[in-house]
UniProtKB/TrEMBL annotation:
GH16 domain span: 29-295
Keyword Lipoprotein: no
Domain of life: Bacteria
Keyword vocabulary terms for this entry: Hydrolase
Name of the protein: Glycoside hydrolase family 16 protein
GO molecular function: hydrolase activity
Gene3D superfamilies associated with the record: 2.60.120.200
Pfam families: Glyco_hydro_16
Keyword Hydrolase carried by entry: yes
Organism: Zobellia barbeyronii
Amino acid sequence: MQKPSIFKYLLLLIFVGFIVGSCESNPKKNKNIEPVEESSEAYTLVWADEFDGTGKPKSANWAYETGFIRNNERQYYTDNSKNVRLEDGFLIIEAHKEKVTNKAFVSEEADNWMKNKEFGEYSSASLTTKDITEWKYGKISVRAKLPKGTGTWPAIWMLGENWKEVGWPKCGEIDIMEHVGYQNDSIFGTVHTESFNHIKGTEVGKSVFIENPYDNFHEYSIEWTPEKIVFILDGNAYHQFENLNKTYAEWPFDQAFHLKLNLAIGGSWGGQKGIDDSIFPQQMIIDYARVYQKE
């Protein structure tokens, strides 16, 4: 058999090198996502809940919002184990289609929507660290699997510590993750302030494609400094809000904020396409919540 020439060997080596190079493993990136810049300072874990054990979440970490709370949502929040519990190393927030007595009911003629409904049509849960633990700056990460179906509105978000004193939106709001069931391939990261909020139509946010949010866990995070808030999905940044003009109306984020985890049903956003009652019960399953700060 005739031996290949040196020229043919060189061609073979070039071809093999091209094939090997093109098959190197690269992280799969979601649409519209850019890599996160490396932080110049190391983060240290300062608070965490891994949701181990059984029963209720730790009272040292979480309180509950109960009743009708906001956004004309249809669920009545409870602290019942049916709606919130620890199970197999996870926090379960579970929504049900059921009749729930509204303890704040006054009459059907009451002006306040939270007081003119004798019953709620759905039950769910909302957890908060308000009046327990709050943080100023840092990296906040929550790993979760989302509920599925039209009408669901899960959220991982934060409000400023002065919320009770100045109200919303002056207190500031950081939506680490919001999802509405009728947009099943998107999650949203948004800030609301006195200048930038959805009442004025000036909120600053961005949606990003997410793959299998119902079957797979994803990590939802922010990195928050005096200069900016970066929104991160599975270790990749997709949006940032910068402190440009240094005014409180635009940047109320130089104060401590508390964390909220909730599963809403219907409401001003989640209910825009109605509610599919065939989906219930639905669960938001949280693996961990962690807060890191720079040393």
